[in-house]
Amino acid sequence: MTANTSKMMLVAIAAIAIIAGSVVATMQTSENQAFAQQVIPPSREKTISVTGMASTSVDPDLLNIQFGVETQAKTASEAIDSNNELMNQVVDAIKKQSITEDEMRTSSFSIYPVYDSITDPKTGIYIRSELTGYRVSNILSVKTEKLTIGGDVIDAAVQAGANRVDSVFFSLSPERQLAIQDDLIGKAVMNAKSKAELALEPLGQKIIGVKLVSLSDFGYPPPPIPYYSRADAGFEAKAAAPIFQSEQDVTTTANVVFLIGE
Predict the structure, then answer these.
(1) What is the CA angle 62-65-66, rounded to 5?
(2) What pLDDT shows up at residue 234?
(3) Fewer Cβ atoms within 10 A, N terminus or C terminus of the chain?
(4) β-sheet with 248-261: strand ranges across
(5) Is 241 exposed, middle or buried (0-12, 13-18, 19+ CB in 10 A)?
(6) Could you tell me which of 145, 139, 134, 4 has the C-alpha nearest to residue 71?
(7) What is the value of pTM for the model shown?
């Protein structure tokens, strides 16, 4: 093989390598362009954010009552002893109304001093505070599925010595509320989609995808119903007080960010 022939072969091989490299580069460029046409950069995405809502009203399954005993005496120990005696009577009385210990909880127990303000009898100017005794407050909460015995429980407690009835209200158990909220999720999402479609129609746009979904579960239980705060303030227990239950509103919301396009 001559020197000229060898040079020609090297030149041919080099040319082939250059052509092959160009072909590969062209193919990669074409693939990249095609991919770029399919994927929309986040900075160029068009979106619409909509909040959908679904709600329902259901019958409650829990009765909540909060009441207790307040006593006052010159010493803390005397006030505690008096309070314990009355509270034991109250607990015994409501147990007779089919309330079990599992349905009772101590909501709060407090002891605090009681002071009188001493003033000058001639001028009426304040002089000092004088300790006159101690007050003990023991508040009991009852949570029961027996929805119809609210009036009987309250009246039994008051007759046994309870001098505070702070609230009476109906609610949903956590398990039931969660189940209801889960059932509403799909309806809330569809409500968001419907709102988005109505907003996009006059703009000539439509939903082409979903970017984000976030859920919020919340209910709107009615506020506690004040009953009577002091049984010793002129209240005389007679017939069972009527307690009527009310439906509970449960709401689920879904915030959806839709991708939109023509």
Answers:
(1) 140
(2) 41
(3) N
(4) 47-58, 248-261, 206-220
(5) middle
(6) 134
(7) 0.66
Q: How high is the mean pLDDT in each 10-residue block of the chain (262 residues)?
A: 54 49 49 48 81 93 95 96 96 95 95 91 87 96 94 94 93 91 93 95 93 76 46 46 76 94 86
Structure token digits, residue 114: 């009681």
- Round to whole Å and give the CA distance between 219 and 181: 9
Tokens of 49: 């954010």
Here the tokens at position 53 are: 């809502």
Q: d(Cα 157, Cα 151) in Å, to the nearest integer?
A: 10
Q: Which domains does the chain have, with CATH numbers?
A: 63-171+228-238 (3.30.70.2970)
Please tell me what DSSP assigns to residue 67: E
Round to the nearest angstrom and report the end-to-end CA distance of the chain: 68
CB contact set of 232 (below 8 Å; sequence gap of 6+): 163
Using alpha carbons only, what angle is made at residue 141 by residues 160 and 139, rounded to the nearest 5 degrees? 65
Enumerate residues 6+ apart whose C-beta is below 8 A from 162: 67, 68, 69, 86, 90, 231
C-alpha distances (whole Å) from 194 to each of 132, 206, 214 are 67, 11, 17
Burial class (CB in 10 A: 0-12, 13-18, 19+), 37: exposed
The pair of three-digit structure tokens given for residue 209, joined into one six-digit string: 């995808």
